[in-house]
Design brief:
3 strands; alpha+beta; three-stranded mixed beta sheet; 4 helices
Length: 152
């Protein structure tokens, strides 16, 4: 509720009403999921070039190291730790627009690309995605990005 005595439109409890967009056009993290989804549906999701099926496996599984397996496990990762990415309307609604893509295999190293906005530090996102992949494809020795600038 607005304080009628103040001309500067401050809220009495410093809490904006539900459904008030931030200055950047995003919903507040405390808004209802439906409102976040409504705002997020107006923002394009991160693109995904690989069109195969996700491969959902428990950590400790042993898959052979191949581009196809890395792509399939990465697709499952986008779903299982999906709150880190902008693939859902709810996440985009609060400004999380980030995505992760497979770039290449460099021997036993997986090269990824990060793009968009993340809630977490980009190094944390890379670490979580890399560990997810390593937990299912143990031949992966390391993971990184093609351009270190992506981690800033």
């Amino acid at each position: 509720a607005l304080d009628d005595d103040d001309d500067d439109f401050l809220y009495k409890d410093d809490t904006p009403p539900i459904g008030k967009m931030s200055e950047m056009g995003y919903a507040d993290e405390n808004d209802p999921q439906e409102y976040k989804a409504e705002i997020g549906s107006t923002i394009a999701p991160p693109s995904v070039s690989w069109q195969g099926e996700p491969l959902f496996l428990p950590q400790g599984s042993v898959l052979e190291l191949s581009e196809e397996n890395v792509q399939a496990v990465l697709a499952a990762c986008r779903v299982e730790i999906g709150t880190m990415f902008g693939y859902t309307a709810e996440n985009r609604g609060v400004g999380i627009t980030g995505g992760v893509d497979f770039v290449e295999l460099d021997g036993p190293m997986v090269i990824l690309s990060l793009h968009g906005r993340f809630w977490h530090q980009r190094t944390t996102v890379l670490e979580r995605v890399g560990k997810y992949i390593q937990g299912r494809i143990p031949e992966v020795i390391d993971f990184g990005v093609l351009d270190e600038y992506e981690l800033t």
